[in-house]
Amino acid sequence: MLHYKTDEEVGLLRKSNLLVSRALAEVAGHIRPGVTTLYLDSIAETFIRDNNAIPAFKGYGGFPNSLCTSVNAEVVHGIPSDYVLKEGDIISIDCGVVLNGWYGDGAYTFAVGRISDELKRLLEYTRASLEEGVRAAVAGNRIGDISSAVQTMAESGGYSVVRELVGHGLGKKLHEAPEVPNFGKRGSGPKMKKGLVICIEPMINLGRKETVRLNDGWTIRTADGRPSAHFEYAVAVDKGRADVLTTFQFIEDVLNKM
Length: 258
Ligand code: MG
Ligand code: MG
Description:
CATH topology: Creatine Amidinohydrolase
Distance between the termini: 45 Å
Order of helices and strands: HHEEEEEHHEEEEEEEEEEH
Number of domains: 1
Number of strands: 15
Number of helices: 5
Strand content: 15-25%
Bound molecules: magnesium ion
């Protein structure tokens, strides 16, 4: 069953997702060659707790940290470690918080120093596929309209869409119904109404779509070892136009100054 949020509840979810947006921007200021992913995790955890919230991922299903940090061929759910970022890497950072009992969940893929044109284009297309998904997240449309929009944009760039992991509803739980796949057919799936809050989160591979799970029990990596990107917004479905609860503006303000 789908939970539809009142305007007041959407307001609370906006606060949670703005905190995620600000936490990702805080982390953005520390991403450079030479830092470890565990250091970035500590920056996020301190920032979240200083803002009277709880890191949502820490302890979720036994996950050990506040961020998921997924480098290069890692798709999602990478565990922060003593891995030292190097020039030319890409790193997908996924951040979750609980604030006032409501969840925030968002992700952004960053360049470490200068990256290849091939990787820049992957990031551009992944971001564009997210924006296409958002355009389809309006009342009266179906979930499959989002899925199809994301898939069409990603595949138009020659990329492939991860199948094993999907977007989701968001509220007083991190993962609520419905599932929001990044592939599918227009006109399929549940019909959306105003007040449905969902995370749209394309995971797009430079090579083939298949993934493997590493022995740590968490990290999802591309099977062919080629890079993958991930961007995630929380959006409230509304009439005419989705209300995006996440913003990447804070991140971009930080990156533009670096
Ligand atoms: Mg996420
Ligand atoms: Mg999510």
